[in-house]
């Protein structure tokens, strides 16, 4: 089995640490054999753009790096392949996502208020564990039926098999991994047009998309107060005076409301006063007596026939006549 995680660059010490933390089993199925240590936000697949965006979300994520333990999980070979190919993904649980949305909406209002009072943007505060439970759920994306690769092991008799069809309740799993890296990594597979629709994957896609849009918002700077006095700046004073003398912007709605009768006599053209006949439609054209279809040597085909290349061949016999 090739090393899909490119985890060979991870130190063996780090791998041992992550395996130990995850209980030496695949986090999804509990399979204890052939465990890979995998990146959530992949080193290669996600490039640096995702990491840059994560850092912009909050100063709290400044220390996040792809090789940090909070970005590393244990997968069996099957789940590793499915995760990195986007066939499955992991998202924060429904309840956790709702808390994240509430927090961001309230926090954004706090920042807006501060900026509107002339203070600098205090920055986003993200909920972090233990305040926010690091609770996750598995979401099948392009896998219609989740085949059990492992039921339980003697060491982990209660290892739960995630159910892909929303038929049974399943326990949510708690791992010591980054909620925000999980969210970012899930956005791509969930947006796949090949996503198999299910209530769970629909809700995950909607919430993940909403959260990322919320985290991308920036606080707009307040409009600067006018501190320039027109007396000090003659050009500005003249400009303001000229602006006051200018007629109001022509507006059909206000003209009709203010003087419906004058519009037809005034010099300003008003589209609303044109009579219907002046709008040239095919029906108007055909009703006019001076208009006739072009006479054509093609008879019934009339002028409706499209020209073809043969129409432009000069016939030498016709030229002689
Ligand atoms: Zn597995």
Summarize the helices and strands and which ones pair or pack.
Layout: H1 12-21, E1 36-39, H2 49-57, E2 72-75, H3 77-84, E3 88-92, H4 94-116, E4 135-140, E5 173-174, H5 179-190, H6 199-216, H7 234-245, H8 252-258, H9 282-287, H10 316-320
Antiparallel strand pairs: 1-2, 3-4, 4-5
Helix pairs in contact: 4-6, 5-6
The structure holds zinc ion.
Characterize the structure shown.
With 321 residues, the protein is mainly alpha-helical. The protein has a domain at 7-216. It is 34% helix and 7% strand. The protein has a three-stranded antiparallel beta sheet. A two-stranded antiparallel sheet has the order 1-2. Helix 5 crosses helix 6. The N and C termini lie far apart (87 Å). Residues 1-7, 147-154, 156-161, 163-169, 250-278, 288-305 and 311-315 have low confidence and may be disordered. Zinc ion binds at residues 26, 28-29, 31, 75-76, 78-79, 149. It comes from Tulasnella calospora MUT 4182.
Classify the secondary structure makeup into a structural class: mainly alpha
Output the radius of gyration.
34 Å
Low-confidence stretches: 1-7, 147-154, 156-161, 163-169, 250-278, 288-305, 311-315
**Succession of helices and strands:** HEHEHEHEEHHHHHH
* Strand adjacency order, main sheet: 3-4-5
Number of alpha- plus pi-helical segments: 10
Shape: elongated
Bound small molecules, deduplicated: zinc ion
Distance between the termini: 87 Å
Q: In percent terms, what proportion of residues is strand? A: 5-15%
Question: How much helical structure, as a percent, in the residues?
Answer: 25-40%
Quote the average pLDDT: 73
Number of E-state strands: 5
Largest sheet features: 3 strands, antiparallel
Domain HNH nuclease: 26-91
Protein name: HNH nuclease domain-containing protein
Pfam family, one: HNH_2
Organism: Tulasnella calospora MUT 4182
């Amino acid at each position: 089995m090739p090393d899909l995680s490119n985890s060979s660059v991870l130190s063996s010490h780090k791998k041992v640490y992550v395996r130990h933390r995850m209980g030496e089993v695949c986090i999804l199925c509990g399979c204890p054999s052939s465990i890979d240590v995998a990146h959530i936000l992949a080193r290669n697949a996600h490039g640096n753009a995702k990491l840059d965006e994560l850092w912009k979300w909050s100063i709290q994520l400044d220390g996040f790096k792809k090789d940090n333990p909070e970005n590393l999980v244990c997968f069996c070979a099957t789940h590793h392949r499915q995760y990195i190919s986007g066939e499955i993904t992991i998202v924060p649980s429904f309840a956790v996502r709702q808390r994240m949305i509430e927090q961001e909406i309230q926090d954004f209002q706090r920042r807006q208020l501060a900026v509107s009072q002339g203070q600098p943007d205090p920055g986003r505060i993200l909920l972090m564990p233990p305040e926010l439970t690091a609770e996750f759920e598995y979401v099948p994306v392009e896998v219609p039926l989740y085949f059990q690769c492992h039921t339980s092991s003697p060491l982990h008799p209660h290892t739960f098999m995630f159910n892909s069809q929303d038929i049974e309740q399943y326990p949510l799993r708690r791992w010591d991994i980054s909620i925000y890296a999980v969210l970012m990594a899930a956005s791509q597979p969930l947006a796949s047009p090949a996503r198999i629709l299910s209530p769970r994957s629909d809700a995950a896609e909607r919430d993940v998309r909403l959260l990322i849009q919320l985290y991308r918002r920036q606080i707009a700077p307040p409009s600067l107060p006018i501190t320039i006095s027109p007396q000090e700046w003659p050009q500005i004073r003249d400009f303001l005076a000229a602006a006051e003398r200018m007629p109001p912007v022509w507006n059909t709605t206000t003209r009709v409301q203010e003087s419906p009768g004058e519009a037809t006599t005034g010099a300003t053209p008003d589209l609303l006063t044109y009579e219907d006949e002046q709008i040239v439609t095919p029906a108007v054209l055909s009703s006019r007596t001076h208009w006739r279809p072009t006479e054509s040597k093609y008879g019934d085909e009339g002028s409706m026939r499209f020209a073809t290349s043969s129409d432009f061949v000069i016939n030498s016999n016709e030229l002689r006549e």
